[in-house]
Write a structure and sequence with these properties.
binds adenosine-5'-triphosphate, 303 residues, Rossmann fold, transport, 13 strands, 11 helices, 4-stranded antiparallel sheet, ABC-2 type transport system ATP-binding protein, ABC_Transporter_VariousFunc, 6-stranded mixed sheet
Length: 303
């Protein structure tokens, strides 16, 4: 495995690989944005958020696959972007070599030897058909195709989903090798928060189409606290500050912003959350939903 130095936070003058300003996209009842986001060159940015939060929509907007209703997205030339999407766009009857032959003319820096080395490293056979690849194998093929044209920016939508633990570590190692060149940048989405812990420099938490947090991985867990208290420790005012409130037989537990801890009494225990705690609690929605469901009066009123 290659050693990549611990990242420092991007300086304000670090150039941007991706710049998103005021991005808005409506898809049926779902409303994304307005989103503002900067992906600094030389850093790895990880998107995390519940199912349906808007991660793929944001990534597709970056790739020009989704037309924004408002706002702007600035990315490098298509030739310089490597893409790994969760829904492969390859023709099912293509063999591994045919997939490479089809993509090669689209990229000025295509390197056939690099493609062969990557497929060999992943254990993919040249004559395997796309439709016969397992989910993990087709992700590996997408990664080989993406890296074979020497991109500056890699955009990957849930690249580790469907990979076994060894393949996941292999992929992370490969991406670390990619990041040894400080002109390179990576954007990826994931539900596997250990991927963020081991690989992301900057974390973006998206919930319900809105960015709740952008910053260094360590700052994320410092921006929130897991609060646990007795039944009398929660007032209507402090309840409004909670995310993902869960009432327990002995009281309550909820996520709160660190800046809101003063609103809770000394009986409430505050602990540092995990990234999973933050994502899961934000994903459960605002407190008023959980109270409404817990309260039969609200339920019958809604029925
Ligand atoms: N083509 C479409 N037409 C209508 N709604 C869509 C379309 N594509 C996505 N959506 C909706 O947009 C919302 C956001 O979807 P998106 O795929 O961006 O979420 P996600 O965060 O990537 O979720 P997941 O983690 O489940 O992949 C969802 O409610 C989804 O149903």
């Amino acid at each position: 495995m290659s050693d990549r130095p611990e990242p420092t936070a991007p300086a304000a003058h670090t150039p941007s690989a991706v710049e998103v300003r005021g991005l808005v996209k409506r898809r049926g009842a779902f409303h994304l944005g307005p989103l503002d986001l900067r992906v600094p060159v030389g850093f790895v940015t990880g998107f995390v958020g519940a199912n349906g939060a808007g991660k793929t929509t944001t990534i597709k907007a970056m790739l020009g696959m989704v037309r924004p209703d408002a706002g702007t997205v600035r990315v490098p030339d298509r030739d310089r972007i490597g893409v790994v999407l969760d829904a492969p766009f390859l023709v099912p009857d293509w063999r591994v070599t045919e997939a490479a032959r089809a993509l090669r003319p689209l990229y000025s820096r295509w390197d056939e030897r690099q493609f062969a080395a990557l497929t060999d490293r992943f254990g993919l056979r040249p004559h395997q058909k796309v439709k016969d690849l397992s989910r993990g194998e087709s992700t590996k093929l997408m990664v080989a195709l993406a890296l074979a044209h020497d991109p500056d920016l890699l955009i990957l939508d849930e690249p580790t989903a469907g990979l076994d633990p060894a393949a996941r570590l292999d992929l992370i190692d490969l991406l670390r090798e990619f990041m040894l060149d400080e002109r390179h940048s990576v954007v990826f989405s994931t539900h596997i928060t250990t991927d963020l812990e081991t690989f992301a420099d900057q974390v973006v938490v998206i919930h319900d189409g809105v960015i709740h947090f952008t910053g260094a991985r360590d700052d994320l867990v410092e921006s929130y606290a897991m609060a646990r208290g007795g039944p009398d420790d929660l007032t209507p005012a402090s309840e409004r500050l909670t995310h993902g409130l869960r009432r327990t037989p002995t009281g309550f537990e909820a996520l709160i912003a660190t800046t809101d801890t003063a609103a809770f009494g000394p009986g409430v225990v505050m602990e540092t959350p995990t990234i999973d705690d933050v994502v899961a609690r934000l994903g459960r929605g605002p407190t008023r939903h959980s109270t409404a469901l817990a309260d039969p009066q609200h339920r019958s009123a809604a029925a």
